[in-house]
Amino acid sequence: MTATGGDHGRAVARLGRLRGVPVEVYVPRGVHPAAAAAIAAEGARVIRVDGDYDTAVARARPAGPLLVRDTAWPGCEEIPGRIVEGYATLFAEIDARPAAGAAPAGPVVAPEVVGPGSVVLLNTEGTLALRTDGM
User: Fold this and answer.
1) What does the pLDDT read at residue 38?
2) Which stretches make up the Tryptophan synthase beta chain-like PALP domain (predicted)?
């Protein structure tokens, strides 16, 4: 179970599907219908919450035995820390590609998570975009 603004919930849903584990994903009212549909397409039960992201997290916390969250609070830092480790692995793999001789196919895009379900994209041409649609 998790709370999400988009991508995190979809990733948890996919892992649940691959592992045969049922997943519930709590989404705040502002999540785009396409993002919620993408989460459901991964096999998760999507539960809409009438509130913001923090409200969705609060609703998800007592709902099940394991909350796979991307936010931390005192005493609950292990799982979010592992998610950050996953991002670090992703960027280490991106950094290693040029060293291995693999040139990018086109402009390089560097995503940066700036909030739940929001990513800033900066490419080598200097274009900046904020995506909040669950990409």
Assistant:
1) 92
2) 2-95
User: Which residue's entry shows tokens 């584990």?
Assistant: 21
Q: Which CATH code is given to the segment(s) 2-131?
A: 3.40.50.1100
The average pLDDT across 34-40 equals 92
End-to-end CA separation in angstroms for the chain: 20
Instruction: Residue 102: name the closest of 110, 94, 111 by CA.
Output: 94
Helix axes 7-19, 33-41, angle to 10 degrees: 10
Question: If you search the block for the tokens 């502002």, which residue do you land on?
Answer: 30
| 56-98 pLDDT, tens digit each | 888 887 766 677 776 667 777 777 777 777 777 777 777 776 6
Q: Dihedrals φ, ψ of 73, to 5°?
A: -145, 165
Report the b/e string of 63-101 with b at 16+ CB within 10 A: eeeebbbbeeeeeeeebeeebeeeeeeeeeeeeeeeeee
CB 5 within 8 A of CB 116: yes
